[in-house]
Amino acid sequence: MLADALLRSLAGTTALLRVTGTNTSTSQSEVGLVATTFADVVISPVVMRKLRPSWQDAGQSKWELLVSATGVGQQVSALDLASAQSLFAMTLAVTVAGQDFLIESIAANEAFGQVYLYRLLLREARPQAV
Amino acid sequence: MQNAKDSFYMALRARLAAINPDRTVLLRGSVRPGILVEEAEAPFNQLPNDVFVLRWLGLGTDLELASTMAAEECEIVYHTCGTQTFGGLDRGRSLGAMDDELVAMLQPFHTPKLSYTQTPPAAMLTQVFWDEPAFTPIVTQRDLIGRSAKLMVYSYQEQGE
Q1: Do A20 and B121 touch (CB under 8 A)?
Q2: In a domain, A129, yes or no
Q3: Interval B86-144: pLDDT, tens
Q4: Which of B5, B30, B37 sits opposite A26 (nearest CB)?
């Protein structure tokens, strides 16, 4: 809760996790023929911060998304998932302020054995054809 | 060539499910045989362990024949950290098991070409065939060992392709 208050005080915003649905038509979806069903999962509060510029990875900017563990926990329960890791594993992209990002890595901050904040290292996604 | 790529993947997928039904992967919410096409999945920041990953590389065509023949190079990448039971000390044996599974999956070196744009998949007139895999040396990254195998997949271009 304290983490949520801190995130909100730092102009906390909302992130959308684009998660994949379970497909029944596996043979076609596995070869990229049928688009998987997607759903946008709203997580808040979150804070986005740009990491120090680097010349690696073809000059793409990297960002860190600080995500409230409470917000993640609510969505994990709503989607009936086993853990937050399952939610992140299902996530294709993260959208913040209309910009898509790909998850590079995930870390969790804990206090007294309980996660209070997830830190997602993000990379800007390249635009896809319409 | 897309039908050949799809048929090759689906053949290997079906053969793997028969050879080792326990090799599965949880991907996009479904449990599938432990093989995937890299270009048909979400971008990976780290390839999954104990799974065969198909990666399509070079492309060549032979236009001198009665039917155009297309050849595409396929790299099959796989690595493992071993099992928890053995604390990862069996990673060499796990990789050896994957080597054997891959060799078994690739035989016979042909499969009927199907068009997966239709449901059920429509059989085409020709076969997809491939040569023997060329295995790369093992690459060790701390607790992870892996290797890849490259092979050429051939098919004749049929009308409408």
Answers
A1: no
A2: no
A3: 888 999 999 999 999 999 999 999 999 999 988 888 999 999 999 999 999 999 998 99
A4: B30
| pLDDT 10s digits, B66-81 | 888 999 999 999 999 9
Beta strands B52-62; B35-37: pairing state: parallel
CATH top class, domain B2-156: alpha beta
**B5 vs A contacts (CB less than 8 Å):** 31
The model's pTM: 0.82
Q: Testing the interface with B: which of A17, A23, A29, A31 to mutate, by most B Cβ within 10 A?
A: A31
Interface confidence (ipTM) of the complex: 0.73
Nearest to B117 among A23, A33, A103 (CB): A33
Q: How do the domains of chain B map onto residue ranges?
A: 2-156
Provide the domain count of chain A: 1
Closest residue by Cα to residue B149 from B47, B40, B55: B55
Residue B25 in contact with residue B32, Cβ under 8 Å? yes
CA atoms within 13 A on the CB side of A129: 0
